[in-house]
Amino acid sequence: MLGTNPFAALSASMAPGVMQGYVVLMAVLVVVGTLYDVVHKGSAKYFFANWRRSKSKASHEVPLVSIAVKTVVVDVLASGEFCNARRRVAHLLTMYGFLLYVTSTAVMVFSTSTAPLWPQLWWLGGAMILVGGYWFWFFIRVDVVAEGNSPLRITYADVFVLSLLVSVTLGLVWAYAQASGSAWSRLWFTLYITATAVLFGSVPWSKFAHMFFKPAAAFEKRVSNANGTRANLPAPADKPEQFGKRVKHARNY
After folding, report:
1. Are 10 and 19 in contact (CB under 8 A)?
2. Helix, strand or coil for residue 252?
């Protein structure tokens, strides 16, 4: 089961182009939804306006390439924005699991290869998403842990993670049911593609688009810290030691 492409068996009941068209449609929904989110919320306009304002007020030049590399390594690849170790691990599991899951899904849908590597990566990515996602949902969410709300309470901020968990859970259940010859496999598949459509179709109302412009925001923040334009602002509550550094740096100029 772990080495078998679950999408290959669909060719017995539908043309390969149907599933390929579905994947393309999901990609289009992500692009359109992200563009709508950026335009509707004005995040791109805000970012470039803030960037120009930061450059005009900068007290000195900064190494942009070095800052960009640090942003990618620390903020993107290592999720350095999370100071809480549990939340960072849960986020990394979900993020890298999602990348593995989506990439292997696309490869298995569009490729005729029978190599067991991609199905194994698909199962691994799905398992990472479920571990990181359910861990976050039931044990790490602030409104559940700190405020004592019910884990079943849902807000717009929860749409992405919840729809992702439902989609991946149904996908793995469908693959298992199909491999075991269950008569319910068609039902599980229908629920799976429906949940996946909700996941990618709800981009304008979920936090899905954040993964595209959060690196830009992290880069701008590092540049502002380096060029002195944040010197008169208090440090983040979780990094009070930076305040003293900024004040000292501002006095030197």
Report:
1. yes
2. coil
